[in-house]
Write a structure and sequence with these properties.
The protein has 483 residues and is α/β, with parallel strands linked by helices. The protein has 2 domains: 11-147, Rossmann fold (3-Layer(aba) Sandwich); 180-472, Dihydrodipicolinate Reductase, domain 2 (2-Layer Sandwich). It is 35% helix and 20% strand. It has 16 helices and 15 strands. It has helices at 21-36, 56-70, 78-85, 101-107, 125-134, 154-167, 183-193, 224-228, 232-249, 258-270, 294-297, 397-400, 402-406, 411-421, 430-450, 465-472; strands at residues 11-16, 45-50, 88-92, 113-118, 142-146, 173-175, 207-215, 280-285, 308-314, 324-330, 337-344, 361-367, 371-379, 388-396, 455-457. The strands form 2 sheets. A 9-stranded mixed beta sheet has the order 14-13-12-11-7-10-9-8-15, sandwiched between helices. A 6-stranded parallel beta sheet has the order 3-2-1-4-5-6, sandwiched between helices. β5 (142-146), α6 and β6 (173-175) form a beta-alpha-beta unit. α1 (21-36) packs across α2, α1 (21-36) packs across α14 (411-421) and α9 (232-249) crosses α10 (258-270). The longest helix has 21 residues, at 430-450. The radius of gyration is 24 Å and the shape is globular. Bound molecules: NADP nicotinamide-adenine-dinucleotide phosphate.
Length: 483
């Protein structure tokens, strides 16, 4: 089964921060793969913009090198690569000054979509929006793509939204959360709203609880100073885990359209209960086995920033009242795994004896090995009475979909093409980001006010003991953390 791609119209895409890590490691490879898939018109134009002294040829050479590192050998067709590199141009520009803006205006062609990707430090988002407007580049053909983090708290997110709104309509602003571009995450909506099987059970009557895990094996390493000003609550929970929670908890939108979907997501965030201190655990990984601990990787030896968070939250509405959502995320954990597990209640009565009352589990694996597993109870084969066992009904997308499943596009591929098409469904709206900060801020303010320190946890484990206790005290347990 071949993946179906719908070509997009001709466009000019400007990547601000074109010499940076994200541009070279994610954005250019994603564009190349879309080009390879035949989705990009031959007269598309990709303009790299940064302060480094490069010309078109030097930038193409840098892009070639980056693609060599990031694109699998069987996808590196030399003729196609050359044709792709021909679409690339470079403009030397300063986001905070006047240098380069006239050259950029000259490079862009009228009558096409102009997409501007802000792949620069967050402090440059507002100056870039202002300069685009000042140079007449904020017309209806313009779209701006804003990377994370979108603000540091509610006040800064509001200020950034207000600045963007001075120069662009909300319909031109694409706030990216790459989790929403992942196939399995979109599949969550397909599973819920294109099947009859799950939705009748998708509520507090039948769902005991939901677990969302985003675990990483890496530490903060080279990103220590940046990360230390942020922490897991801001860097992961406020955006990625919140988005996953929204897709699980939201009501069915009337249509799969940007505002219909985003309206429902905002309602979920606004229905979240505040978090009591007893319902949240934060941790910091300790040094172990010669590997540095969190405090060795950051500048402040007394840092109270968390590299791990586990929490319990309730969505206070008719559908979910009484069903807790447990979220956890952290660094230097046992496995690299992102998954959502919907744990159903036990059957109300067992005809097989008490030990047989086991709830079903629906597990949506976001990474690695994207797919879905349903745990069901069956009879253990063989004579000797009715013994029950639990087995997984496992659907790996790679296996189920053959070639098309083995070649799942990277999140950035999907999201970049959505920007060109003008489809905001998988991007966060301004009010959504603000609602998420409004929920997150009091938690962080509470830690600061109490001077709480994160608890230390062992690298390579499942996080602090206190996180396990958060579940145990409710008579539940986290799923095993397996990659
Ligand atoms: P980076 O490697 O530090 O790159 C920053 C880019 O900005 C460079 O190309 C730099 O090039 C350019 N730049 C700096 N000052 C500039 C100025 N005054 N005018 C014009 N260009 C300027 O950062 P990054 O890791 O790519 O991250 C970019 C953005 O994506 C950040 O907001 C980050 O939070 C977000 N993000 C990154 C990742 C990731 O995996 N890297 C993941 C999620 C989100 P010159 O020095 O040549 O100007």
């Amino acid at each position: 089964m071949a993946a179906r791609t719908i070509p997009v119209d001709a466009f000019d895409l400007v990547i601000f921060g074109a010499t940076g890590d994200l541009a070279l490691r994610k954005i250019l490879p994603a564009l190349y793969r879309r080009f390879l898939a035949g989705q990009m018109p031959a007269d598309a134009q990709i303009v790299g913009a940064a302060r480094s002294a490069l010309d078109d040829a030097a930038y193409r050479a840098r892009a070639r090198e980056a693609l060599g590192d990031r694109v699998a050998g069987d996808k590196r067709d030399p003729a196609i690569l050359d044709a792709f590199l021909d679409l690339l141009f470079y403009v030397r520009i300063d986001a905070t000054g006047e240098a380069g803006w006239d050259a950029l205006c000259d490079r862009l062609r009228p009558g096409r979509v102009h997409a501007f990707y802000f792949s620069v430090a967050p402090g440059l988002f507002a100056p870039l929006a202002e300069r685009l407007h000042a140079h007449g580049l904020a017309g209806p053909e313009a779209r701006i793509v804003i990377e994370k983090p979108f603000g540091h708290d509610l006040a800064s997110a509001r200020a950034l939204n207000a600045t963007l709104a001075q120069h662009f309509d909300e319909g031109q602003v694409y706030r990216i959360d790459h989790y929403l571009g992942k196939e399995t995450v979109q599949n969550l909506m397909a599973i819920r709203f294109a099947n009859m099987l799950f939705e009748p059970l998708w509520n507090a009557h039948y769902v005991d609880h939901v677990q969302i895990t985003v675990a990483e094996t890496v530490g903060v390493d080279g990103r220590g100073p940046y990360y230390d000003g942020s922490g897991a609550m801001r860097d992961m929970v406020q955006n990625h885990l919140m988005q996953l929670l929204c897709l699980i908890a939201m009501e069915p939108p009337a249509r799969f359209e940007p505002d219909a979907v985003r309206d429902e997501k905002v309602k979920v965030i606004r229905a979240l209960d505040p978090i009591a201190p007893a319902d949240i655990v934060r941790g910091q990984y300790a040094a172990a086995g010669g590997r540095p601990g969190y405090l060795d990787a950051v500048e402040d030896p007394g840092s109270r920033t968390e590299s791990f968070v586990a929490l319990k939250v309730h969505v206070s509405n008719w559908r979910w009242a009484g069903t807790p959502f447990y979220l956890r995320t952290g660094k230097r954990l046992r496995a690299r795994v992102s998954e959502i597990a919907v744990i159903f209640k036990d059957p109300p009565h067992s005809i097989f004896g008490d030990g047989a009352r086991r709830g079903n589990e629906l597990v949506i694996r976001v990474q690695p090995d994207e797919g879905i597993t349903m745990r069901v109870t069956i009879k253990e084969p063989g004579p000797g009475g009715m013994r029950l066992i639990e087995v997984p009904l496992d659907m790996s997308f790679a296996e189920a979909l053959g070639d098309a499943g083995a070649d799942i596009p990277d999140a950035y591929e999907r999201l970049l093409m959505d920007v060109i098409r003008g489809n905001q469904t998988l991007f966060m709206r301004g009010d959504e980001v603000e609602a998420a900060w409004a929920w997150t801020d009091p938690v962080i303010a509470g830690w600061d006010a109490r001077g709480d320190r994160p608890v230390a946890y062992e690298s390579g484990g499942a996080g602090p003991e206190e996180a396990l206790a958060l579940m145990h005290r409710d008579g539940r347990r986290w799923r095993a953390m397996e990659g």
